Amino acid sequence: MSESDQGERRLRLRPVPCDYCGAEESEPYLSGPDRLCGLEGEFHVVRCARCGLLRTNPQPVPEDLPKAYPASYEVHEASVRRPDPPTGWLRWALVNYRNYPLGKRAPAPVRALFWPVLIPRLRHRDGIAYLPYEGEGRMLDFGCGVGAYVARMRAAGWDAEGMDLVAEPVRAGREAGLPLCQGTLPGADLPSSHYDVVTLWHVLEHVPRPKATLQACREILKPGGRIAVVSPMSDSLLADRFGSCWYGLDVPRHLTHFTQATLARHLEAAGFGLDRAVPIRRPTFARRSFRYLAEETGRPLHHRLGRSRLVARLLSHVARLLRRTDEVLFLARRPEA
Ligand SMILES: [Zn+2]
Fold first, then answer.
1. What is the mean pLDDT of residues 209-230?
2. How far apart are the CA of 54 and the centre of ligand 1, in A?
3. For a 10 Å CB count at each end of the chain, is N or C smaller?
4. 271: CA distance to ligand 1 center in Å?
5. Is 83 helix (H, G, I), strand (E, B) or coil?
């Protein structure tokens, strides 16, 4: 490996205070390598001694953050496709239970009849991305990557736009005709009180100052507008068992490691009123965590478990029953006044 390659794989780090309370004192939580992209070094997660928030510390210096996302980072690899509008049961359910402007609503007795069948499906993995339609349908997807979600939501009737810090995926999305811009929050020049919904799918744990990011999201939302945040949960069933091999840890890219309690607290500190937290069942976390564990231990059993869809599904159901899933969707609103 050449010297410049080595420079690319090593990040400069600096200590940072707690994003919630500003304290610098902390206690060790766990340490591990970069299992996803293989950047050099051992990374440490600490627990704030004052408020309990988990953070990666030290963290990559801001100028080196792009280096933490090498070309192999899978999220950027997805190409931009032009999705079709929702069809079939999904379209019908979105019109009748989620307010989507995709057709005429059925009479109330018909809606009531199909409610018990369709609502669980809407809350399932694919359905959950379709948030209830709000206001004029103005949506911003913050941390949009190439804009796959923006494209899906536009096809479903939203006036959706996207923003991402990284130039390359934004350019790819724009070339595919999507309204994406490069930038970050706080910092980007966006109109205040403009959007009905702002979404952050697996983004908040990546930004250096999540509270400031949430506050900036609040400013661009209309009064009464809604924020949707999905993040991995460090108090999930699997996070407890797998430790540094848990797929949702993803150091050094994840800078803050939220739990259900600390994310709710962050949203409230940024001026949001919490609506609800929806546990998301995601079997991938178990399979990937077993694979990391297999790499660490070399045990054939862990390899086999990493390939088992059945075990992964079973574990995800147990986690859902215990309300300790690896991902949770938080819905919150900017207060009206
Ligand atoms: Zn703190």
1. 98
2. 8
3. C
4. 18
5. coil
Q: What is the pLDDT of residues 232-242, one digit of tens each?
A: 999 999 999 99
CA of 268 to the centre of ligand 1 (A): 15
Q: Ligand 1 centre from 197 Cα, in Å?
A: 29
Residue 126 Cα to ligand 1 midpoint, Å, equals: 35
pLDDT reading at 273 higher than 60? yes
> Which one, of 161, 140, 152, lies nearest residue 85 by Cα?
152
Which residues, in sequence order, are bridge partners of residue 226?
197, 333
**Domain interval for residue 139:** 134-333
* Residue at which a domain ends, from 68, 87, 106: 68
Rounded-to-5 percentages of helix, strand, coil across the chain: 40, 20, 40
Residue 186 Cα to ligand 1 midpoint, Å, equals 21
CATH number of the domain to which 33 belongs: 2.20.25
pTM of the model: 0.92
